[in-house]
Amino acid sequence: MSLVPGKEILAEANRQGYAVGAFNFNNLEFLQAIVTAADHTETPVFIATTEGAIKYAGLDYIVAMAQTAARSTKTPICLHLDHGRNLDVIRRCIDAGYTSVMIDASNLAFEENTAKTKTVVEIAHKKGVSVEAELGRLKGIEDNISVAERDSFLVDPEQARRFVKATGVDSLAPAIGTSHGAFKFKGKPRLDFDRLHQVKALTNGLPLVLHGASTVPRELLDRCQKSGVKIPGAQGVPEEQLIQAIKHGINKVNVDTDLRLAFTAGVRTVLNENPGQFDPRKYLSPGRESVAELVKGKILLFRQGR
Ligand code: G3H
Ligand code: 13P
Ligand code: ZN
Q: Is 188 contained in some domain?
């Protein structure tokens, strides 16, 4: 199959009330692991690259690998630019064959974010490419935070309504208390579901995206720790809260950190157990398998609303 526009995958997920996964990759092994998991579960998936991934692997390599991966399965695959900030990179992705782009201008003032997002929508839609944008800042909700402080960085539902109307985006990532990486919360994990509910209602049921959605599962942390990874205090979004978020209207769940942990645990375990091993295929394969297993589990979890 060819790569499909993100909008098609999200419309179906939204209609049926579930979420798909968006998984980041920077190399062949992660891509193969993600697409294997999508194929085995027969569930559409976003394969996502950041500007950093493009710098690392090269745009032409990424597109060629993604198109080859999509042709290897009947399951719909969308190639997505994650957190695009640079208009030139966004244009290059659209021209090269990406089927979805995110314009992340969430660091700018509301009016500037709106204007920049509108420009990307105009460029992308001409080529049938879907657009995701972001409102609010990705930052964990600290214990004892005041209402005013929350309002200062989480999405404003009324702004979301105006933003979606003015820009014509296909999906929106509202900041509701998650953050990127392995250290999401200092205290108790908590997301703002009321806010999410309001955003869904005020944007007429637009597909919504949750960034920073790694769960940093206990068993994975244990495997990491055993293999020598040192990340004390790591904490992700609890699975039950992800399910709640999907029930409140999230249709795309972004995961990167958990894949990195799974890969690293797989590779380090083999290298620790076999100090004489220096054939990369022998340690990259367990990394790839570990990511594929993890992604399968995520896909099935996100599908639960169906
Ligand atoms: O938001 C996406 C990632 O977790 C950060 O990825 O290191 O490729 O920028 P990056
Ligand atoms: P995590 O760091 O929680 O995996 O988030 C990834 C993400 O949001 C990619 O856009
Ligand atoms: Zn993100």
A: yes
pLDDT tens for each residue of 69-79: 999 999 999 99
214 lines ligand 2 (CB under 6 A): yes
How many domains are there within the chain? 1
User: Which domain CATH number covers 55?
Assistant: 3.20.20.70
Q: How far is CA 254 from CA 39, 110, 131, 267, in A?
A: 18, 23, 15, 23
Residue range 220-234, pLDDT digits in tens: 999 999 999 999 999
pLDDT, greater one: 187 or 175: 175
| pTM given for the model | 0.98
Residue 1 located in a structural domain:
no
- Specify the pLDDT at position 305: 64
Q: What does the block give as tokens for 121? A: 């929508």
- Give the phi and the psi of residue 120 in degrees, each rounded to 5: -65, -40
Token code pair at residue 239: 């699975």
Domain of 216, in residue numbers: 6-305
Q: Which residues line ligand 1 (CB under 6 A)?
A: 24, 50, 52-53, 82-83, 180, 256
Could you tell which of 104, 180, 208 is best to mutate to test the pocket of ligand 2, judged by most ligand atoms within 8 Å of the CB?
180
